[in-house]
Amino acid sequence: MKPDRIILIGFMGSGKTTVGRALAARLGWELVDTDELVEARAGAPVARIFQDRGERAFREMEAEALASLLERTRVVIATGGGAPAQLQNQNFFSGAVAIFHLRVSLQTVRERTRGNTGRPLLGLSERELFALHKSRQPVYDGLGTAVETDGRKPEDVAEDILLLLGTQESQSRHGD
């Protein structure tokens, strides 16, 4: 069974959207960034949603966006970093999907997101950010095949994913 969807998960700054763009282009599939989908539906950037409505409201909108993608095929989906950790999203991460965890160190997160004001969680203290990163790693590792991104070009990460797809025909981690 080949996957109908490829889902990229990982911490902010791991390169999900950038790698997803390269991967979708190589496959001739569409890329959907769930943060962009939420922003389009809400008519506001993620940072504004967090500020005005709170994280809970954002997570509800995110869950609705993910649910709207359940029937889509031939699509690469770049999820928000917190999406896999939300219980209401479990169905999204099952079925004929291939999930890849784009692993990233906190040092690389800081380098890649420096100056970015559109990420609400960048306002966390170093200690809080470390704790969040650490708490999400088991969730990501439990859902997806890990692919390292530190010090690598997005095209090379996309190539690794294509190789994994080619050598692991039905490695849908939840289709077992």
Report on the architecture of this protein.
The protein has 176 residues and is of the alpha/beta class. The chain has one domain (5-167): P-loop containing nucleotide triphosphate hydrolases (Rossmann fold). The protein has helices spanning 16-27, 34-42, 46-53, 55-68, 106-113, 126-143, 154-167; strands spanning 5-9, 30-33, 75-78, 97-103, 145-148. Helix 1 (16-27) crosses helix 7, helix 2 packs across helix 4 and helix 3 crosses helix 4 (55-68). The chain is globular. It starts with a strand and ends in a 9-residue tail after the last helix.
Features of the shown structure:
disordered C terminus; five-stranded parallel beta sheet; 176 residues; alpha/beta; Rossmann fold; 47% helix
Q: Kindly state the number of beta strands.
A: 5
Structural class of the helix and strand makeup? alpha/beta
**How much helix, percentage-wise, in residues?**
40-55%
Order of helices and strands: EHEHHHEEHHEH
Rg from Cα: 15 Å
Shape descriptor: globular
Named CATH architecture? 3-Layer(aba) Sandwich
Number of structural units classed as domains: 1
